[in-house]
Amino acid sequence: MKYSDLPKWSGEAAKWAEEYFSTLDDQPVRSQVEPGDIKALLPENPPENPEDMEIIFRDFKEIIPPGITHWQHPRFFTYFVSNASPASIIAEQLVNYMATNSMLWQTSPAATELEERMIQWFGHAFGLQSGYSGLIQDTASSATLTAVLTMREKALNWEGLERGLRHSPQLRIYGSKENHSSIEKAVKLSGIGFDNLRFPNNLPNRSIDPEHLRDMILEDIDAGYRPAGLVLCVGGTATGAIDNLVEPIQIAREFDLYTHVDAAWAGSAMVCPEFRYLWKGVEGADSIVINPHKWLGMQLECSIQFLADPILQSKTVGLRPDYLRTKGEDRISNLSEMAIVLGRRFRALKVWFTLRAYGLSGLRDLIRNHVKWTKELEKKFCSDNEFELAFSSPLALFGFRFKPRGMDSELVTNRLFERINDDGRIYLTQAKIDGKTTIRFTCGTYSTTRDDVLMAYDVVRELGDRIKLEMTDGSTSRD
Ligand SMILES: Cc1ncc(COP(=O)(O)O)c(C=O)c1O
User: Fold this and answer.
1) Assigned domain for 192 exists
2) To the nearest whole percent, how much of the chain has pLDDT over 90?
3) Residue 315 maps to which CATH number?
4) How far apart are the C-alpha atoms of 186 and 257, rounded to whole Å?
5) Ligand 1 pocket, 108 CB below 6 A?
6) 260 in contact with ligand 1, CB cutoff 6 A
7) 174: left (phi over 0), alpha (psi -120 to 50) or beta
8) Which of 308, 326, 346 is the last residue of a domain?
9) How far apart are the CA of 424 and the centre of ligand 1, in A?
């Protein structure tokens, strides 16, 4: 395969993509293979001699798609989606051709300057008034780890980086109970330790209780700990819980804590002014993460980290060894100095393409439709007395349980969940909410239509009826 073969094989890839997207609707959303099925089709050792592209491409078509869970399927209603608009796909294709590394301004000036401009565009798109700067990270987990490291070092006056943590005061981080597990991971990996991550109580609306937060901080100071940071969520993973930001951030400021807001999923909805009440007070935060790859059509990896003062983060993770020094560096930014990793994929191109190809109005329509259709679906479940609404969110997410009369709801909900995902027409996740199994529905795929969303009710109802029948017959063979 030579560079001169690119037109032929890019063309073949595009033809394959066209067929893939046009037949996706008929494929099971979740891959139906068993563990080991794919590996069994792959030789144990690499080829000694070059192979023909025809054969490589044929094998790709035969082996890979059956082992793919189709994240771009219009009925992928699980986790939070990682979506990919057509404009983003094309931008990624161009990035693949250039295969550039934007670790320094000099190693790809266009990538760095476009990224800086896109951060500014995003600030405008999300209605942020303060002058945030920032960068595009690969994932929210990286942004959160970087923020937690900054919390640590700020609290230690940047001495931990040199001396290690052994003789440092014991730090405390406070976090919402509804936060994603990436916060736990960041606290563990930062050396602060999970025992030092404290969870204030929730209010009945699942938002962090500011009074309890204050009490915990005071209690820790009295006991000799050093409070370092606060992590809040706007759109927690399980139920979409939303912390009230104003008071907790105010308290964090009183005690000089660094604050990070995880809006990885719900942040995308802030392109719509009517949802911005959900993160009122966000501009008090030192760091905010939003993943446009979850809901704005800009595919993985696309995680925006806004920073009120980027110097704090670059003091923590930035390094400028001799070999990375460049002429005129006082006039430019090297974005890798705000990140843990040095090598950086050119992520801003898909942002630029997507924002231009659909405009903010197109992206608002996407979000508004997803929310509207999800609400319609939620109503269908609410008006069916064999289902119970477990939780609801102002955005495109809700949870339900199956509760046919005279049957164990926990048992049948679990059974229904398994049956839905084996069936393949739709794909949902389950979560334990308040100790009970709950089936979670979310919508965010670029190609999803209203019919796709409403079909979820028909599939669930049909499979639920079958389970009821089997249980009354005693014929539970499939389970
Ligand atoms: C609220 C929230 N934060 C963070 C993450 C982690 O995102 P990433 O996969 O970008 O690290 C998720 C993942 O779904 C999430 O739901």
Assistant:
1) yes
2) 94
3) 3.40.640.10
4) 16
5) no
6) no
7) beta
8) 346
9) 24
